Amino acid sequence: MSKTDVARSELYIGAIYSVIESTNRSHPKPLFTNGRHSDAFIYIIEGGCTYTMDDGYRFSVGAGDVLYLAKHAVYRMDVDEGDYHFIFCDFDFICDEPRKSTVYTPKNTTDVALWFRRLYRTYTSHALGTHAECLSLLYRIYAAVARSVGSAYVGHSSRERVEAVREHIDRNCGGELSVRALAEMADMSEVHLRKLFHSVFGISPLAYITSARLERAKQLMQYPFLSLEECATQSGFSSLAYFSRVFREAVGMTPSAYRRTLPKKEV
Fold first, then answer.
1. For residue 77, how far is the Cα from the chain centroid?
2. How many domains does the chain have?
């Protein structure tokens, strides 16, 4: 199921629940969140972290980025070495559609950092008019997020070629795929394809290939007569060991454990 990109939509903001400045230390093991209670915008002050969503989508954040985490999102966090310092605002978008968690890089990080710090100070002051001012600041942040993707214009012809690349990946994820071959198919350089693909879909071509293969493997794993090795190779993974490692990093459990949670399909 496709998810709404909040930066390419015009959503209304409802309740604001909290604004917190916090620091996570580096953890030897990943951290897991099994469904957020709200939406959140997070400004990264220092450090970095890699987020892996339950659908296999993976991205990294660093200082100056704004992270959006959707309500009900299920994900894994791998915190980089050192302090991971951030300010986050928990709130609700007024939207019934599932939304896409991802990272944005605002054009003017100085202003966004200022708005987040003012949002934190205002929320914790408990003065009269706090909610209205916080809401105003949060809409400024949301606008900066929207402008960060809207500034990268992709022409109709280029968009069509990039969309054709994605469709090719979806149809052929079980076979051999490389960014070089996809770039040749689209008649553009690898660098240009990576840039356009990420601009249009919010994910790199390589990460999308991995995500598509994981989704195909999940579908094949519902058939009990297929071994895990067959599920892996038919999904485009070079070996069962590599598939198991990628699957565990993305989903948070081994393929065997995941398979036990699935309903069985017959021929």
1. 12
2. 2
Task: Write the pLDDT tens digit of every residue in 32-51.
Answer: 999 999 999 999 999 888 89
Shared domain check, 27 and 105: yes
The arithmetic mean of pLDDT across residues 125-148, rounded, is 89
pTM for this model (two decimals): 0.58
Among residues 150, 181, 197, which one ends one of the domains? 150
Q: Rounded to whole angstroms, how far apart are CA atoms 217 and 219?
A: 5
Cα–Cα dist 126/123, whole Å: 6
| Close Cβ partners of 27 (under 8 Å, ≥ 6 residues apart) | 79
Q: Is residue 82 one of the residues assigned to a domain?
A: yes
Same domain assignment for residues 80 and 107: yes
Pairing relationship of beta strands 66-69 and 12-24 according to DSSP bridges: unpaired
Q: How confident is the prediction for the chain on average, in pLDDT?
A: 88
Structural domain span for residue 29: 6-150
Residue 93 sits in the same domain as residue 162: no
The more confidently predicted of residues 26 and 136 is 136
Q: How far is CA 120 from CA 89, 134, 184, in A?
A: 8, 8, 48
Residue at a domain's end among 93, 123, 150 = 150
What tens digit of pLDDT does each residue of 176-196 get? 999 899 999 999 888 788 878
CA distances from 187 to 72, 152, 177, 196 (A): 39, 20, 16, 13
Contact, 62 vs 92, CB < 8 A? no
CA distance 145 to 29: 31
